Amino acid sequence: MSEGSLDAPVRYAIDWNDPDFYDFDKINAELERVFDICHGCRRCFNLCESFPILFDLIDDSESGELDTVDVADYKPVVDACTLCDMCFMVTCPYVPPHEFNLDFPHLMLRYRAAELKAGKADRALIELTKTDRNGKLAGMMPGVANWASETGNNLTRPLLEKTMGVDRQAALPKFHGKTFALRAKSDGVTPNKDAPGYGRKVALYATCFVNYNNPVIGEAARAVLAHNGVETEVVYPSCCGMPQFEQGDIAKVAETAKQVSTEMAVWIDKGYDIVALTPSCALMLKFEWPLILPEDESVKKLSAATSDITEYVVDIAKKEGLADGLEPLDGGVALHMACHARAQNMGAKAAEMLRFVPEADIKVIERCSGHGGSWGVMKGNFEKAIKVGRNAARQSASSGKTYIASECPLAGTHILQGIERLKMEDKPQIEESQHPIELMAKAYGL
Ligand code: SF4
Ligand code: SF4
């Protein structure tokens, strides 16, 4: 038996159409097998909440081994997993092709899928994460929606906590009346014909977050790409389904994948590259969808054509060179590497991109922000999410940098909430975190 594999991790297709996938006896047997390996290894003790819960369960059991842990107690381990993929992509030596064949996050996903099938899903969370419906509704009255979701609103937030389970302290994304896709129709952005990258064409997959909650990220991406000669079209068929994936609703994600990939394939056929604006969505398009629909030609084509925005800018820089005009930023950057950017196995592209800015002063932070998508805003999880993200918050706060940035906007906001709660003097007063592409736009003076 080898101690860890030296080969690159391989991920097997998700067998979600097989009835055994949802069989709790089989799931529990697999949990037992995997948990026992983790018990002997414990490398992931500080990655998230799942592993400490598991190891405490084992250590506090009668025998101090997994055999005296009740299977009913496995559920909190599963519930605490945010599917960040760090254990699989970064830490675990036993992932395939190793004979142990260990894929911890996808086993947590399987458990959730089985729970969903058994009717044990959290209905409030399902409603809360219908991002397209919620974005459209809130976008009709953004002032009211933003007033109601403000953390300091003592009228609405306790109500939201009671009815939907959203922790009253958790910062929630803002909404806008005009989506990114709508703004792009009339922003007059055209590609710079003198830039070395002229001739490239990109279909920007807007993502639900950028489209409804933070169009500025999309505008920055469009401006930076145009300055570099790239023609862009904004395409947004629907959300990538990451929130439904987190809940184990694989059938829904498959439906989404088919719809979005069919629409994006038309653009690929016209010679456009696909660029996703947030890493979780890029991860879905590149890696998770092909594991859910391995035979689907559009899904395969989309996976091969998709880049993360920072990855794409670095690609221009390496192949054609970036357009002139970058000026130093007025201060350094504490750059959080989002888990789903790291899970794409592409290297630290956001850092690489920002280092093209003259006199770049970047501190890379590779610890989890703790947010974990919808997980971190729920009551019962928010305090844990702050605890998981404390190291990233502390590193950001003590970095002395002017900007706090993350490719994951939810992570950036969560780090700022973590900083507010740190017991330290001279905490930086930074109101908003930035997406690295916003800093790039700033460095270009766009
Ligand atoms: S995927 Fe992330 S949250 Fe889930 S067990 Fe692994 S490290 Fe923890
Ligand atoms: S997931 Fe892998 S690295 Fe992490 S504790 Fe389990 S066996 Fe060890």
TrEMBL record:
Cysteine-rich domain location: 202-286, 333-410
Protein species of origin: Denitrobaculum tricleocarpae
Pfam families membership: CCG
Protein name: Glycerol-3-phosphate dehydrogenase
Origin superkingdom: Bacteria
InterPro entries to which the protein is assigned, alphabetical: 4Fe4S_Fe_S_CS, Cys_rich_dom
Keywords attached to this entry: 4Fe-4S, Iron, Iron-sulfur, Metal-binding, Repeat
Gene Ontology MF term list: 4 iron, 4 sulfur cluster binding; metal ion binding; oxidoreductase activity
